[in-house]
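Quick note —
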Amino acid sequence: MQSAEKGEAAVKLLEPGDMFGDYTVEKLLGKGGMGAVYLVRAPDGEKYAVKLMFPEIASKNPDFRKRFAREAEFAMKIKHKNLISVYDVGEDPDTGYCYIIMDYVPGGSVKDRLAAKGALPIAEAISITAQIALALEVAHRHGVVHRDIKPDNIMFDADGTPKLADLGVAKFTDDEHKTTVTTTGMIIGTPAYMAPEQMMDSHHIDARADIYALGVVLYEMLTGRRPTEGSSAVELLAKALKGEALPDVRTMRPEISVAIAHVLSLMCAPRPEERPPTTLAVAQLLQQAAMGQLKLPKKRPRASDAQKAKRPFPVAACVMGALVLGAALFGWRAWSSHQKTTTGTTGVSPVAAVTSPANPTETGISPVGVGASGTPRPAALAGFAVAVAFGAAGKLRPADFLSAAFGAAVMTTVRLPPP
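Predicted structure written out below.
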């Protein structure tokens, strides 16, 4: 047995060939701050993984020991093909290690696959996500929220079946009024995969936090990178407080179908109530999307679009402006022409010139809307034609169209008083 320094404290590590109870240690599979995982061989030759908590950690914080034991006890109660099976839990009297004996899965993890080949094939990523969603459904039905869904915790057995591991930070809902197995005020989980509500309060969350995290893992499997790549924990928390949605996955990988992108956006919706209610629903949605059977909702107009729709369409204002401008232009031309004909070389009063013996009823009125000497009728008719064209194309609302038409009709009959 060898020692490794961790800060000021030395932790004991097992070496190949060491005995741990009836098991022979073959190799170290991984090590973290709280313990290590080893590949061991049973007397009958079967291989298992043994997860150990360092005695120094267990002695300093009894809550960690409780959580460690609860993980194993829960895992022993339920069986699912996509959950790693646990066979034994206890504390070794010789070494002081708390231990869990569980399945050995030699196929690596999602993290390993991403490191080896980047983004996964779309069908493979969807299949892995759907299977893990079904495993989570079993956990959620037993009152457990995983709280740490990430590529490291999705592993593969020899035939490639994905299996969910590590319930070490799971939240057991029946503990809320009994014992606390997590430290109040701690952020529990891995920030890059945590739902916004989990970033703010890790203790009062439900299954929808796991749905969000699984969605982030799906995003990473589809694109080869996390949607928040490079963001610090502080930046992630700031985004959580703002309720920012994740980037559209199709901007990174355009061949992803709209249906799959839609399901992913639902899984990673900033607010829990906008996500699917259960991981079973997630698995069903993914299956439908993959088979092209998902019925997408009709696109709802955004609030800004709805506000724009309430505003009068600028074409209506343009048409009415053209009518008024045309009337003013032709009225001015009529007035100019009339001025020239009445005050030219005869010196006759303009008012007298307006009086027509042939049409005494029109005395004092110049028929600007009708005659040939500068009527605005062409502009009015042109404006009316524009209104009809835009109305037929659906660019004018009925009220705008009627207003334009009425204005055109008025312009064809208006009479201006003589200057």
